[in-house]
Amino acid sequence: MATNYITESNKLKIAELDFDAIKTALKTYLQGQTEFADYDFEGSAMSILLDVLAYNTHYNGFYTNMLASEMFMDSASLRSSIVSLAKHLGYTPSSRRGSSTNVDLVFEGASEDNPLTVPRNAKFTSRIGQDAYTFLTTKARTSTYNATTQKHEIKNLEIKEGISFTETYVVQGTTNETYEIPNEDVDTTTLIVAAGGEIYTKADDLTEVTSTSKVYFLQEGNQNRYEIYFGDGVVGKKPATSELVQITYNASQLGTDGNGARDFFIAETVSGATSVDVTLSSGFTRSAGGAERETTSSIKMQAPRQFGLQKRLVTSNDYKTRLENDYNLVDSVRVWGGEENNPPEFGTVFVSVKPRTGYVLSQAEQARIANDIIKKRNVVTINTRFVEPDYLFVVVNSTLSFDPRQTSRNAAQLNDLVKARILNYSSTQLTNFEDYFRYTALTKIIDETELSIKNNTTTIAMKKRIKPNLRVRETYYVDFNNALYRPHEGHASVLRSTVFTYGGIENCYITDRDGDLMIVVSGRGTSGDPLTTTAMSEYGIAEERIIERRIGTIDYTTGEMIFTANIARVFEGGEYIYLLAQPKINDIVPQRNTFVTIDTNDVVVTAIDDTNRIDENRVRSY
After folding, report:
1. 65, 291, 357, 382: which has the highest count of C-beta atoms within 10 A?
2. In whole angstroms, what is the distance from residue 176 CA to residue 406 CA?
């Protein structure tokens, strides 16, 4: 009879999950018995049985681990699991969205007493790249006659990118009956659902749904396709058996690629008109709002936040979460209360939005956010004010020392490579209002671009822009939101602007001296001078001719400046005057609606062959 001797050294280790570790644990356990002596011999039948046991244990451990992981939002990896968990929080992932805009139509050849109707889903086309894509009207509109132009017009007609589809089902009367939308590119914001000839609307608030409410519910199914289902007669009206369910929707072909369309043409004949002129409506500059299907990482982040939001807008995070989730044009949002504003303005919430395309939202896009998203949920007595992002551009001037013997690239190619890395830092690390510019992080990225780069000398400056009201004496306020470099009284100028025409004199620019702002012109200055840290340092106060000695003041501690000037013309007919200043410290911090970024035109990289200095250092070391 076999005797087992289990000691501390041969106890079965149940924490092992790898195949080899499991097999080793089984062998260690068998050391405490004498009946099977060949368990440690690889060619024996016992060894094969141990392989089978180890494989089985490994498979079960892996399966159990994956099963447990998929039960929690943070660790789940399958989309179906993440969507199912989000459903418990009342969250439905957003679908692909078609880009949209508003257009004005002017009809030629129509008689005054004959109004013209443009139906829902009327086709418009726009060319994006080399291809033409379809935009559809979101609802039917009838023209009105303009007595001044003597033409029929339709103003602010919304059109949305996509192709229209219709699905028809018959109610079977089964429990938990759902109706699948087979197209994965469906834009769920365009859904029109009818049952038994009656229109049903999407349920947004269960507290308002009764047993007779004609509402439908939307969810993402297991096959990555959206599903429609109706109420059970207690929460929402239940369609009768054999009734027809009709689902009409648009499927977006482009998603985000549809943003930016500007020129549109009607692709259908309008009865009663010989031709139709199509232009963008006032406040709209392009199509916008197109988006891809929500990713799993976004669902993981947004679902708990939406659950905590509970369909209200009270705190600043409520506004931020709602805008990021409900408006796909948003790239980043900053919200602050009036008590935090400078100066304070109680009873107001300030909202600053950086759009996915361009720098600022149009007035029409701001109105759409205010009316469709904010007014439905915020406190009645609280006003909402949109503030444009205040872009703070970082000017980067980097000189590289490299060893050409350790690279196949020449200096120009290294310049392009490092510039691309700097711009990649901006696009990946400076993506939100809250993101800081970190000087040491950037210089490290430059050094690590390639082995041949031995060191870099990088200087930075801050650049702001103002849009002057030409030929009008006006006061301008600029805030760098960071302290400026000024080590002592009487220090050289730390600020300089791009050139403009002032008082009939060309090539004028703004500079500073001991806290005062002045307008000067330099005999060395030309209209083509680049606004870089190098160019700024080349201007000496002795070479400047003062045009107006004191137009305003600058606070070096806060970075605030205010001045009054009558600017006649901006260099080369541009819109903006740019102001460049050197920060006190190289880490740049945003405040409120300040958005720190790096523009491709503000990066200068110079690679220097360092071979001679490297060889000299080697000789000295002997």
Report:
1. 291
2. 67
The whole-angstrom separation of Cα 349 and Cα 508 is: 39
Measured N-to-C along each axis, helices 296-309 and 79-88 cross at an angle, to the nearest 10 degrees, of 0
Q: Are 57 and 22 in contact (CB under 8 A)?
A: yes
CA 153/CA 146 separation, integer angstroms = 7
Q: Is 389 exposed, middle or buried (0-12, 13-18, 19+ CB in 10 A)?
A: buried
**Measured distance CA(330)–CA(411) in Å, rounded:** 39
Looking at the structure, give the CATH architecture of the domain made up of residues 312-388: 2-Layer Sandwich (3.30)
3-class state of residue 510 by DSSP: strand
- Prediction pTM value: 0.61
Distance of alpha carbon 548 from alpha carbon 403, whole angstroms:
50
pLDDT, tens digit (0-9, with 9 covering 90-100), for 223-240? 889 999 999 999 999 999
* CB contact set of 207 (below 8 Å; sequence gap of 6+): none
What's the residue count for the chain? 622
- Which pair of tokens denotes residue 563? 């001045």
Torsion angles phi and psi, residue 423, rounded to 5:
-70, -30
- Among residues 512, 485, 507, the alpha carbon closest in space to that of 496 is found at 512
Q: How far is CA 598 from CA 356, 423, 461, 463, in A?
A: 16, 7, 11, 10
For residue 365, which of 414, 316, 327 has the smallest C-alpha distance?
Answer: 327
